Amino acid sequence: MVRRRRALVFDSGLGGLTVFARIAEARPDLELVYAADDAFFPYGALGEAALVERVGAVMDDLIARTAPDVVVIACNTASTLVLPPLRAAYPHLPFVGTVPAIKPAAEASKSRLISVLATPGTVARDYTRALVRDFAAGCEVTLVGAADLAGLAERQLRGEPVADADVAREIEPCFVALAGRRTDQVVLACTHFPLLISHFIRLAPWPVAFVDPAPAIARRVDSLVAAGGPAGEAGRPFAAFFTSGRPPSEPLRKALRRLGLVATSAGERAAAD
Predict the structure, then answer these.
(1) I want to staple 22 with a disulfide (CB 3.0 to 4.6 A). Which of 30, 62, 218, 224 is the partner?
(2) Rounded distance, CA 269 to CA 93, Å?
(3) Peptide bond into 247 cis (omega under 30)
(4) For 181, phi and psi rounded to 5 degrees?
(5) How much of the chain is helix, strand and coil, in % rounded to 5?
């Protein structure tokens, strides 16, 4: 029996769900699997060597379980480090990474003031600074390392309260006024951050464009995976793996169901071959 094309979407936590949703919208024919390495969330707490080793081990298991046709690393921190070794280990399997959308933000900016809202680990990476140098040379770029924002996004999706003051404190450095100009583009350089977009819009001191990388990732997946297998939409629910083994809270379970996902225990296969 010919099976559907399959995409594996991977993140350290729940932020990759923002990417998952865009892929599901763009390619309803794909069979999708979501995997969160929540046992080691957040990845910014790991050293570079430990992160590469951890993601490699988890990915070996997930690829063996799910036999994907494409893998999406829906995490900026991981993408800057693990893509080269993963591509070397699996030369015939396409991997799609997540990088800060600095180029489109710079192209769209009228004020030439843009900010990159990221985790501290992403801000510290030479890769991020190279993107600024290569694609935003005509702009003044503010790099903002938000230490707590990904955790706040996780809390909200799990149904826990998130205070406006905590979100406002994290995003405040993004808004720069200089010589009559103001920041007009804020790059969301962590897939968790769009989970808080309603807070960002409401708390922003002036309107800006918040640049989400998920649509571009979905387009890249679409370009890499040819249509194939049975016609029509893929059957749901899809499987969601959580490496911690902790059962999701009821609010999170509902959020997963809205995306067509159901939590799957580590001992089960994510999908039939």
Answers:
(1) 218
(2) 19
(3) no
(4) -110, 155
(5) 45, 20, 35
Residues 176-205: tens digit of each pLDDT: 999 999 999 999 999 999 999 999 999 999
The SS3 assignment for 92 reads coil
- Whole-angstrom distance, CA of residue 39 vs CA of residue 41: 6
Q: Cα(228)–Cα(242) distance, rounded to whole angstroms?
A: 29
Token pair belonging to 238: 């899809």
Phi-psi group of 172: left, alpha or beta (phi > 0 → left; psi -120 to 50 → alpha; rest → beta) = alpha
Cα–Cα distances in Å, from 111 out to 176, 208, 213, 231, 269? 11, 11, 21, 47, 50
Is 190 designated active site? yes
* Catalytically annotated residue among 17, 58, 70, 75: 75
Distance (Å) of CA 129 to CA 82, 104, 135: 18, 16, 10
The total of other beta-carbon atoms located within 10 Å of residue 32's CB is 30
Among candidates 92, 97, 129, 81, which has minimal Cα distance to 16? 97
pLDDT, tens digit, for every residue of 44-64? 778 889 999 999 999 999 999
Average per-residue pLDDT for the chain: 91
- What value, to the nearest 5°, has the Cα angle with vertex 269 and ends 264 and 273? 135
Q: Is the pLDDT of residue 216 over 50?
A: yes
Catalytic residue among 190, 195, 221, 270: 190
Phi, psi of 116 (to 5 degrees): -115, 110
